[in-house]
Specification:
disordered C terminus
Length: 299
């Protein structure tokens, strides 16, 4: 019963995904919600959909996975009522932890995406965090954390603040991923734009209002540099802290206030971005090979 529903949702999402054109598109939150609202309305009207007052069951497991040189603790949020449609690896920001993305992990799992949220091993060495994310992807590809092997095309990388840089550095060396989602990403190293320019996978960047904690919008520079930018979306009124949930008073004091409605909006946009990239990647996986002489090899 669940599989036909999931497949129908994926077909609907693929039909709504914007073609990957050379010129990046900027989409407002209102337009994004119109698309998501149409899918949600269809789901609620479907006889296969769960009751409106019952969220799809989700499981959470905390595990330790051996990576080169260290053991990494991760939270794994899994959809319990359907087969997963993909995997999202979510990286936290500077000096934060996996606990700051509990709500996002659950929201992704409710949408059918397994969310793996690690504790990054380094506070200052952001390049080593990129290495750690890449190593985690390699383990997940071959089957880990109780999950079967999964092709790279079914994996999305996403990260908040400095975690956005770590996942970008990992995505730069891993062609074939479904994509990268920058969540108000911050690049204090100056190397992020270079990685973005080499990026061989599609990218979506979500932005907060300019402030000192995001280096007054450094994510825009990463978005402009991204070789395969799908779109940027500015969350009007959002602070850097709205991109993690639950946040805490330390973030509010240092980086600005947060609000439940803005946190929820950021989560919705993040889940929509993951589904958009996975749907597009799924469509590419299913596309028949081009016939000889029909323009194969051109974008």
């Amino acid at each position: 019963m669940i599989a036909p529903l999931r497949d129908a949702v994926m077909r609907g999402l693929r039909a709504r995904v914007r073609p990957r054109v050379a010129a990046p598109q900027r989409r407002s939150v209102r337009a994004s919600h119109a698309v998501c609202g149409a899918v949600l309305a269809w789901l609620l009207a479907s006889p296969l959909a769960p009751a409106a007052d019952a969220a799809p069951p989700v499981t959470l497991e905390t595990a330790t996975i051996a990576l080169p040189g260290f053991d990494e603790t991760v939270d794994v949020h899994r959809p319990a009522a359907m087969a997963p449609i993909g995997i999202a690896i979510v990286a936290h920001g500077f000096g934060r932890s996996r606990h700051r993305h509990y709500d996002l992990g659950r929201a992704l799992a409710e949408a059918g995406v397994v969310a793996i949220v690690p504790d990054l091993p380094n506070v200052m060495d952001l390049w080593a965090n990129g290495d750690a994310v890449a190593a985690l992807v390699a383990r997940v590809e071959s089957g880990a954390l109780g999950l079967p092997p999964v092709p790279r095309s079914r994996i999305v990388l996403m990260g908040t603040s400095a975690g956005g840089l770590a996942t970008l550095l990992a995505a730069d060396r891993m062609p074939g991923l479904a994509g990268w989602v920058g969540l108000d990403p911050v690049d204090r190293t100056g190397t992020g734009a270079e990685a973005a320019a080499r990026l061989a996978v599609p990218a979506i960047v979500l932005l907060a209002d300019n402030a000192h904690c995001n280096l007054f919008g450094s994510g825009r520079a990463l978005a402009r540099a991204a070789a395969r930018l799908v779109r940027t979306t500015k969350i009007e009124g959002a602070s850097h802290c709205d991109f993690e949930s639950p946040t805490n008073n330390f973030c509010r004091v240092v980086c600005g206030t947060s609000a439940p409605d803005r946190e929820s909006l950021v989560r919705d946009e993040t889940v929509a971005a993951a589904l958009e990239l996975l749907a597009a990647s799924h469509g590419e996986d299913e596309a028949p090979p081009p016939a000889p002489g029909d323009g194969a090899g051109r974008d």
